[in-house]
Amino acid sequence: MAGNIRRKPHKIQIFKEIGTRAFSLTAIMSFVTLLGVWSLLSYTHAVNSTFLPAPHEVLIELFTLLGTGDYWHHIGISIFRVSSGFLLACLIGIPLGILAGTFKYGEAFIEPPMEFIRYMPAVAFIPLIMVWAGIGEWAKILLIFIGCFFQLVLMVADITRRVPHDLLHASFTLGAGRLKAIETVLIPAIRPQLMHTLRLILGWAWTYLVVAELVAVNSGLGYAIMKAQRFLNTDQIFVGIIVIGLLGLISDRIFAFLNRRWFPWA
Amino acid sequence: MSAELSLRETYTEVGDAPSTYTNGQIEIRGLHKTYETKNKSFTALENIDLNIKENEFLTIIGPSGCGKSTLLRIVAGLDEATGGELTLDNEPIVGPGAERGMVFQGYTLFPWLTVRENIEYGPKLKGIPTLERRGISNRFLKIIRLESFAKSYPKELSGGMKQRVAIARALANQPKVLLMDEPFGALDAQTKLEMQEMLLDVWEREKTTVLFITHDIDEAIFLSQRIVVMGANPGRILKQFEVKLPEKRTANIREHRAFLELKHEIVGLLQH
């Protein structure tokens, strides 16, 4: 071992923080690589443009479509469906989850059926939903609800259970009863994690939206994608996917922002 | 902040401790705690008899596994005894309650509340009006010398500061008894000494019964009027000591002959 030779430590270390600049640059690189592969495949005609439109074509199509009122209508109705199904799942799922996480009786009553149902693919419910709710708005909202609800309940229950018991005990020794402890300790304590979970679930809601709109509809982004496929307008399929991705990203950023804004203590 | 604060300070002078603390006398008679597992039963506490007097500072010391924390949790009402009697001012203790405040070893401040809101948590539950609550929190912020951190969240505080707030939070609720479960166990040596002096200072002001758990002999002698030494397997009381040191404790009391003799005796007892 030659002690006088000092080598520089490797730049890439396990779990080692890198600066914001390095992080953003690497992230941009990642997108550039993606775009590069896409360009390479399309501009060299390695893949037929019917199947893989060139980036600029998609961009032009994006702005053309966004210039039409029709497309905004699709976007609007899709957002409406996602938020309705998602909010409905939250409205029922969050209280149930808290109940299941707080009391063992609640857990015993609520969780086993949820565990059972959540392994059933939401998509498999489509025929049943059509029988029950027809093909109207409720059918789409119901599918998104089914896709989100059961997971949400289980996740909320889990978050609730993980609230440190000492916090609860502290509130008891300060005079809180059971209901006060739920109100002033459990619910405040789970909020940041809950927002995190909602963010995740909202992502799934968008996935189920597309599934819901692939069947028997005449509006929405999923429908727009299906219609484009029928006429082999691959560029429009790309636009649809990108728009959904952007909407998901925007809602995700809003959640992240609200989380920092509302819970600076976390 | 100054105008608002100074106005309130007129009726929140540090000296005027409320005289509403009543009694706080604990009686423990033949207390048992056994844990039943599949084919074994484990005796955590066996036949504990102990009286804690009004406004007394009593410390329980013992090796890990002697059941001292279990005993404290039973007094707090967070754990149930399997036998024996337990009363506070002749009323049987059933479940936790505001008259028995507790400071835990881990950090249990509510992270979503500011320092001030944490201190006001108990009074708020009691329905004390906002202005009066302000007075209470102002007084305790001053006592623990964290006035400038009133609006900070717990995550911005050091370990010692957090425990100071935890003590203030418990005392702001005017408990008859303050239960402390190795509250300074996680702190570094220097901070620990500062905290001990602060605790005595607060106790002298507030005059409440304190039941303190520790495994640190120096800490026990420095703080207490009486020390109860417990042994393990099964958890039981080995011996009690009156601490015959001046009421006013300062740092150099640790070199006092009575201090060292008592320490020597307890060390010997715990080595068995």
Automatic annotation (TrEMBL), chain A:
Enumerate the spans annotated as ABC transmembrane type-1 domain.
75-255
Compartments where found = Cell membrane
InterPro entries noted in UniProt? MetI-like, MetI-like_sf
Q: Which SUPFAM superfamilies match?
A: MetI-like
Membrane-spanning residues: 21-41, 71-96, 116-135, 141-159, 201-225, 237-258
What Pfam families does this protein's entry cite?
A: BPD_transp_1
Tell me where the signal peptide lies. none
* One GO CC term, this protein: plasma membrane
Q: Which GO terms describe its biological process?
A: alkanesulfonate transmembrane transport
* Keywords carried by this UniProt record: Cell membrane, Membrane, Transmembrane, Transmembrane helix, Transport
Broad class of the protein's primary localization: membrane
How the protein sits in the membrane? Multi-pass membrane protein
At the top level of its lineage, which domain of life is listed? Answer: Bacteria
The similarity comment for this entry is:
Belongs to the binding-protein-dependent transport system permease family.
Q: What is this protein called?
A: NitT/TauT family transport system permease protein
- Origin species, per record, is Fontibacillus panacisegetis
List the top taxonomic levels of the source: Bacteria, Bacillati, Bacillota, Bacilli, Bacillales
TrEMBL record, chain B:
Indicate whether 4Fe-4S appears among the record's keywords.
no
Q: Which domain of life is it from?
A: Bacteria
The cross-references to CDD domains, in alphabetical order and at most eight, read: ABC_NrtD_SsuB_transporters
**Gene3D superfamilies referenced in this protein's UniProt entry, alphabetically:** P-loop containing nucleotide triphosphate hydrolases
Name the SUPFAM superfamilies on file.
Answer: P-loop containing nucleoside triphosphate hydrolases
InterPro entries in alphabetical order: AAA+_ATPase, ABC_transporter-like_ATP-bd, ABC_transporter-like_CS, ABC_transporter_ATP-bind, P-loop_NTPase
- Nucleotide-binding in keyword set: yes
Which molecular function terms from Gene Ontology are attached? ATP binding; ATP hydrolysis activity
- The record places domain ABC transporter at 26-257
Record's keyword terms, sorted: ATP-binding, Nucleotide-binding, Transport
Recorded protein name is NitT/TauT family transport system ATP-binding protein
